[in-house]
Amino acid sequence: MGKLTAEAVVDRWVPQTPHVSPDGRWVVFASSPVGRPGEHPVSGLWLAPADGSEPPREFAAAGAEDREPRWGSDSAGVYFLSDRAERGTAQLYRAGLAGEPERLTDWPTGVTGYVLLPDSGAVVLIAPEEKETTADPRVRVVRGGPAGSRPTWDSAERPDRLWLLDLSARAVRPLGDFGSRHVVEATLRPDGHTLAVLTWSVADREPGLYEPGLHLVDPATGARQELGVPALETEALTWWRDDSGWRLAYLGITPPGLIGGRAVFDAADHRNLTAGMSVCPIELARAGDDRLLALFAEGLDTTIRRLEPDGGTFAELRRATGSLLDLSASGDSVAVVGSSATEPEAVHCGPPGGPLVRLGDPPRHEIRWGTQERLSYRAEDGLELDGLLVLPPGRTRADGPFPLVTLVHGGPYDRWADRFQLGWFRNGQWLAAAGFAAFLPNPRGGLGHGHAFAASVAGDVGGAEFTDLLTGIDLLVEAGVADPDRLGIAGGSHGGFVAAWAVTQTDRFKAAVVNAGIADWPLLAATGECGRYDRALGGRENSPIAYADRIATPVLIVHGEDDTNVPLSQAELLHHALGDRPHEFVVYPREGHSLRERGHQLDYLHRIRAWFSDLLA
């Protein structure tokens, strides 16, 4: 058996956004490496027979970023966005299943999205307005309002607009008038007469004060109809039909409050269609029969469900062990990216109720992987929790106790699904290959157990969610799996906060990694891009910086220099607070909230393994 290398982790290609052709014969999808090899992202387009009879083949290859593929209505060609003409600036292309792609746009600022208008000879583009400027200051203006109202902002970013591209004349004209609002996404009603459009009040998230808007637009005239104010964090606009006609659904935050699970809403009255469910919707799609499909996170697994005709319940069609993502549907088939504990991400296709056929043979690994176990246990207050345990390759529980690294997911509204744990961040297998047991807990506040479970951390981060981790660790110590004298903890984003919080609350951990973590919640609320949500999660009393004088555990702090979600100032605070106590502070240039560059991902993998190896030996 071969040895797992960091290069094998970051150089593997991962598929995304699969789409079934209207005639049901083909699936097209994009695929890209985990780590970006150069200055710009690289991704390719792949075709495969929907029945899995032949392996996928790459087409229209250009060594650029080809993404967002969609089928023309005749199934004879694919539209997609690509920056092959000018790296970093995407244009719209069209390609037959053989032959060279045809470039359809030459938009100076680049195209960010598009909507096909079948049988009209036109495409709706989402793109910023071309604007001449002699200077480039980033200006933000606050415009006051009536007492008690929320101020409005002029965005520092240029908002996206809707444009109508006539394919025959290659002429572009504005479509609709949204004033200063920023177009986020649009989707066409299947009868071709109406566009559903989501806008924000500003083009960037920095103020944390953007307000969503939902509109209907006539693609022929640009006439607009308002659908009221949707739920916060609206996304995934999806048309479906019942006996009353066409309806529009979307995903958004479950009210009340800013912290809680996702829900499916009916845009007509913004009614929560998933109220009372103990699972969490993650994606929507319109089935071939025009009914509404959804992916649901359910504990460690994922289900495909369909909204019943009465609009009252989502009936389960298929349960998949592990993760399903990027759901799309056409005719009698769906396409999805699936991953289990023993198989990496791959495109699967078939009827919504299954069976789903894997497109392409599983990769032949010459590497022995660590055994991944599903965990189920109860918190101190009796709440049911789940998680994963990855043991070193070729080892069993009987070979313990092992040095144990607890990996804390971000969010907090996220989860560890029972999927293949191999990536620069999802690195359970990477640590297991070095002899560690990896514990991946899903504490309260996360995804997969409904609204109440998710909302329970509002204003109380670091409280019961932290004791949920300790309970799981204690059970592994009692079972002889974990060595109580060799415990480590690591996490990114909210997981980085938990790792930093952990070493202020206990000296049980002998090593910690804080990746893009939060040290000071009030400062984050003032400087991060999600201010009002951060303010709802915690305050000074929940901030690691308030208790930094207690830290005795060596801490590895890593952060992206250009992070706007959790700014670098958070890491700098923790670094300065630690003073001359053992720690290491690493800043990755050009990186945001997630490491993208291949070299940085390789460095991170080697660095964290060395950190834990030195301190948990």
Automatic annotation (TrEMBL):
Residues 427-616 form the Peptidase S9 prolyl oligopeptidase catalytic domain. The keyword Iron does not apply. Keywords: Aminopeptidase, Hydrolase, Protease, Serine protease. InterPro entries: 6-blade_b-propeller_TolB-like, AB_hydrolase_fold, Peptidase_S9_cat, WD40. One of its GO terms (biological process) is proteolysis. GO terms for molecular function: aminopeptidase activity; serine-type endopeptidase activity. PANTHER family: DIPEPTIDYL PEPTIDASE FAMILY MEMBER 6 (PTHR42776:SF27), SERINE PEPTIDASE S9 FAMILY MEMBER (PTHR42776). This is Dipeptidyl aminopeptidase/acylaminoacyl peptidase. It comes from Amycolatopsis tolypomycina.
